[in-house]
Design brief:
By secondary structure, the protein is mainly alpha-helical. It has one domain. It has 19 helices and 4 strands. It has a two-stranded antiparallel ribbon with strand order 1-2. A hairpin with a 4-residue loop joins strand 3 and strand 4. Helix 4 runs antiparallel to helix 5, helix 4 runs antiparallel to helix 17 and helix 7 packs parallel to helix 19. The longest helix has 26 residues. It starts with 9 loop residues before the first strand and ends with a helix. The N terminus is likely disordered. This is O-antigen ligase. Keywords: Membrane, Transmembrane, Transmembrane helix. It comes from Methylomonas fluvii.
């Protein structure tokens, strides 16, 4: 599934086509307005004030209004893999509960917005984004009252300042590395470490490491077929881990139980596999439906809003192996190695967290992808001229 190539109005200059600056500015009016509206809503929601935290979910309404009120309307196909998940959830609508509707809408918010707008038409200053994220981070520290109790452990994944803001910072760090803005890259990485999320560090390593390998090996690692197969094997590993197949290995290797190392995820995953009556053959083509995993866990543990902390495993249990593999394949299928690198980073985040419903992660992922496309389009135009 290839992303849509953006096309700008062109004027002929000699024997070559060149992009007209005023025409580009006119075409990007909708994108600029949508970007400003989206980021305002996002930062307001991220501040942490209870009655404002849901304001971002109004974005589809604002996005549709902006899209309808400017003349150069188009549709962007970058978010198509996520439409696949939304389409797959339709089959469970007839018995959908609150969790199913909630998860579908959370995915719809960013999928719909990035379908309406092509943000590669505008230039985004991600250095400003770092400043805003850091400001939000400071607000969280002050409101949390944890300044005087500092602890940090990479092995135990413990940090006084642990925050999901590490995820968008990881996206920005990788973007800065790809475009060779190394000072911004270092700042982003340092903040990622402070806001400790181990999977972000792992994802950065897995995404960056292939860039130091030979071209053939790098192409093989970033190939969507390779990534899809690896993700399938990874889910099988998580399932066997949950069942206790690697308990002895963890104790003998790192002197921690598998449940300790995974921060309680092993027992959660094991309980989940039991409540859905998992077996490989039945879940190869069909899952329990959108949101049903959360509902079953809530009923089993008698508590609300339980997250599985692994989007990879969640996708298999909700939609089955076929939709899972299809989604991973199309998510990582891009023409350029830079975009494949960014998609690999996101795919790795899916391993141990609930990124699919984190708006601040998905927004920055799509924005970073748009700016990579913008840079590639500029290179093409320069080579043509």
């Amino acid at each position: 599934m290839k992303n849509k190539l953006i096309t700008y109005p062109m004027r002929i200059k000699g024997n070559k086509a060149s992009t007209s600056g005023p025409e580009i500015a006119a075409n990007a009016v909708g994108e600029r307005r949508a970007y400003i509206s989206m980021m305002m809503l996002l930062y307001i929601a991220l501040i942490g004030i209870s009655f404002l935290r849901y304001v971002f979910y109004l974005l589809p309404i604002a996005a549709l209004f902006i899209w309808l009120t400017y003349r150069n309307r188009s549709v962007n196909f970058t978010a198509m893999p996520f439409w696949l998940l939304l389409a797959a959830s339709i089959s469970s609508l007839y018995e959908a509960d609150a969790n199913g509707m909630k998860m579908s809408y959370l995915m719809f918010v960013y999928t719909f917005t990035f379908t309406l707008f092509d943000f590669s038409k505008i230039e985004i200053n991600f250095n400003k984004s770092i400043i805003f994220i850091f400001f939000v981070f400071l607000i969280h520290i002050v409101l949390g009252g944890e300044v005087g109790h500092i602890s940090f452990s990479l092995i135990n994944s413990e940090s006084t300042f642990e925050s999901t803001l590490a995820f968008p910072l990881g996206v920005l760090a990788l973007y800065f590395f790809i475009v060779k803005k190394y000072f911004s890259f270092i700042i982003s990485v340092v903040l990622c470490v402070i806001m400790l999320k181990r999977i972000v560090i792992v994802a950065l390593f897995l995404a960056i490491a292939p860039r130091f390998l030979g071209e053939r090996l790098r192409s093989f690692i970033l190939n969507p077929y390779t990534v899809s197969i690896f993700c399938g094997l990874t889910v099988m590993f998580l399932i066997e881990l949950a069942k206790g197949s690697f308990d002895v290995f963890f104790v003998e290797t790192i002197d921690q139980s598998a449940n300790q190392f995974t921060k309680g995820r092993k027992e959660l995953w094991d309980a989940t596999l039991n409540v859905v009556n998992f077996n490989y053959s039945e879940f190869a083509f069909w899952g329990v439906g959108q949101g049903k995993v959360t509902t079953l866990l809530e009923n089993a543990f008698h508590t609300k809003d339980i997250r599985l902390h692994s989007d990879l495993l969640l996708l298999v249990l909700q939609f089955g192996g076929l939709i899972f593999i299809s989604f991973i394949f199309f998510l990582n299928k891009h023409d350029s190695m830079n975009k494949r690198t960014m998609s690999l980073f996101l795919t790795t985040l899916f391993l141990t967290d609930n990124v699919l419903v984190y708006q601040h992660v998905m927004v920055f992922y799509f924005l970073a992808m748009s700016q990579l496309e913008r840079a590639e389009n500029k290179e093409v135009q320069i080579s043509e001229n």
